[in-house]
Amino acid sequence: MLIAVNNIIVKQVNTEKAYKLQESNVYVFLFPKSARKDEIKKAVEKQYAVKVDEVRTVVLPRKEKNFRGVSGVLTQYKKAYIKVAKGMRINIDDNSVNKE
Fold first, then answer.
1. What is the pLDDT of residues 8-38, one digit of tens each?
2. How many domains does the chain have?
3. Helix, strand or coil, per DSSP, at residue 75
4. Helix (H) or strand (E) holding 39
5. Is 5 domain-assigned?
6. Is this prediction's pTM over 0.85?
């Protein structure tokens, strides 16, 4: 199943580990579970105008939650570690590109 390249990025992960990885040009994003590596690469290259060198993915487990006596399941995502080309970076604050 192919996913449209437009708007497949769910969100960018902003944690201490993700910020530390940015020093080595690695950025962390969440994608739908059905997204493939080639689709992830195309989406990031198109949205941020950078060259992606490597994509590594991890499927996050589903989480069960209870809210006011009603149990449910949170959606399952795929976390992608994306390494961009040397000298390029993604500006987290305004989702634009800066070339050094």
1. 888 899 999 999 999 999 999 999 999 999 9
2. 1
3. coil
4. helix 37-48
5. no
6. no
Instruction: Supply the CATH number for residue 16's domain.
Output: 3.30.70.330
Q: What gap in Å lies between CA 62 and CA 53, rounded to an integer?
A: 29
Domain membership flag for residue 4: no
6 falls within a domain: no
- Reading the block at residue 29, the tokens are 């994003």
The angle at the Cα of 60, spanning 93 to 45, to the nearest 5 degrees, equals 45
Q: Please tell me the total number of residues recorded for the chain in this structure.
A: 100
In angstroms, rounded to a whole number, what is the distance separating the alpha carbons of residues 61 and 53?
A: 26
pLDDT of residue 6: 62
Return the structure tokens found at 53: 């060198």
Alpha-carbon dihedral of residues 37, 96, 7, 27, nearest 10 degrees?
30
